[in-house]
Amino acid sequence: MADRTVLESISRTQLVTAFPQSTVFEAACTMARARSGSVLILDEAGKPLGIFTERDLLIKVVAQSLDPAATLVSAVMTGNPLTVPPDMTVCDAVLLMKERRFRHLPIVAPSGKVMGMFSFRDASARELIDADDLEEHLDQVTDVLA
């Protein structure tokens, strides 16, 4: 079986998005309706400006006692999100996510078109094991070369 790409693996075809002038409350409601753990923040041209996640809601809003109805999502989103091409393998994406400690990656075509959102939960158990094995191998190689 060939390695799946991030685009082939995503379970959600509908992209969950908001604009920077949306409030945190509006973004959270959008996420809840879509049953999504994140919302991609887009500019007027459809380019990704940031990502807002459940973790951002908890740490940057709730724990800071900010008013979700008065706080703009642009003030608490993670700006300039790392994006991946649609042909990246799931294993490579999982490795990247583990290394950077996040669970969502926007998939962006070379043309700049946003094609979807890869989530850690889109990876199969086998792909997660393969990523762990590759991570261990890379650690061993790094130790030998050091």
Distance between the termini: 35 Å
User: Roughly what fraction of the amino acids lie in strands?
Assistant: 15-25%
The number of domains is 1
Rg, Cα atoms, Å: 17 Å
Report the uncertain regions.
none
Number of helices: 6
Write structural notes for this entry.
The chain is an alpha+beta fold and 146 residues long. The chain has a single domain (6-145), classed as CBS-domain (Roll), CATH 3.10.580.10. The protein has helices at 6-9, 24-34, 54-62, 73-76, 90-100, 125-145, and strands at 17-18, 38-42, 48-53, 78-79, 104-108, 114-119. The strands form two sheets. A four-stranded mixed beta sheet has the order 1-2-3-4. Strands 5-6 form a two-stranded antiparallel sheet. Strand 2 and strand 3 (48-53) form a beta hairpin. The radius of gyration is 17 Å and the shape is globular.
